[in-house]
Specification:
Elements: H1 8-32, H2 36-55, H3 62-96, H4 101-111, H5 113-129, H6 132-146, H7 158-181, H8 189-213, H9 215-248, H10 253-284, H11 287-290
Helix pairs in contact: 1-2, 1-6, 1-8, 2-3, 2-8, 3-4, 3-5, 3-6, 4-10, 7-8, 8-9, 9-10
């Protein structure tokens, strides 16, 4: 499919359909086991579709899109509880394995406290998938994937699509770049997390528009992903530090000492991501990556 052959409506329909199909493909596993990768991919599908509906807001009916985004927010929140616990458990277990044997075992005992929360969250997720509301939302998403409710702007000629979609990606890139430029010399955790969210939205927009815009969009997507991944590591470390600090008050002295060692690993990881960010961003904010916008 060449770039001049793709209309705006085709791009939007394709983006919605791909996210819907990704969610449905993971549904059976979510019902029976909830493999971490299935939870992750289902959550990505809901987040990507929410982002795409916002990215393409001038091309889709506002009331229709807002209604879907509300449903996706609910669904993504349910998936997010399980996914966040998956990430936290895997991360802390891996770091506990780096400790000396005695401290490592003590740290693993503490980390096992997350198991009950994880089991409860998976149970809640399975229950949610059996609710009438989920079936209703799933049917709405199926209808959205088949027949999105477009505005007149989406029905432009294919020859205009590249220009219109470039403007869409440009808006996402501009917001990302502006959020980076607003950072102080020593940005707080919330500001870095906000940059990560902007990078993710820019990536999703670039991915969605790639069939029309080609290699430039693909390069921008990969660059935005590098920012997203680095600041994702920072965010995961910050979340782990907070949980360890809260949990330390409930531990024996030996366990508290062990998770203090875990917390130092997380602090080092967060500091490393912070230190690496300017270099990563300088490789992204170049004419080669953004010059076409």
């Amino acid at each position: 499919m060449g770039s001049r052959e793709v209309s705006v409506s085709e791009i939007v329909r394709r983006a919605i359909r791909q996210s819907y199909e990704q969610l449905v493909a993971r549904e059976a596993d979510l019902r029976v086991g909830g493999d971490p990768e299935s939870v992750h991919q289902a959550r990505v599908a809901t987040r990507r579709l929410r982002s795409d509906l916002r990215t393409f807001e001038q091309f889709v009916d506002a009331r229709w899109a807002n209604d879907l985004r509300g449903d996706l927010r609910w669904l993504g929140a349910e998936l997010g509880i399980v996914r966040d616990l998956d990430v936290q458990r895997e991360r802390l277990r891996g770091h506990a394995d780096r400790l000396p044997p005695t401290e490592g075992e003590a740290a693993r005992r503490v980390v096992r406290r997350l198991d009950a929360d994880h089991a409860a969250a998976k149970g809640d997720l399975r229950a949610m998938l059996n609710e009438a509301r989920y079936e209703h939302v799933r049917n709405k998403l199926a209808a959205a994937a088949a027949t999105p409710v477009f505005t007149r702007a989406a029905r432009s000629h294919a020859s205009d699509a590249a220009e219109m979609l470039t403007a869409v990606v440009r808006e996402r890139w501009t917001k990302l770049r502006r959020s980076v430029r607003r950072l102080s010399d020593n940005p707080d955790d919330e500001s870095l997390h906000a940059v990560r969210i902007r990078a993710k939205r820019c990536r999703y927009a670039s991915d969605a528009c790639e069939p029309a815009l080609g290699k430039p969009a693909r390069r921008l997507s990969r660059s935005a992903a590098s920012v997203q991944d680095l600041l994702g590591e920072h965010h995961d470390a910050v979340v782990a530090i907070a949980w360890l600090a809260k949990t330390a008050h409930e531990c024996s002295p030996g366990e508290a000492y062990a998770i203090g060692m875990l917390a130092q690993i997380e602090r080092d990881a967060a500091a490393s991501a912070r230190a690496e960010f300017p270099s990563v961003w300088n490789h992204v904010d170049t004419k080669r990556i953004r010059g076409w916008l």
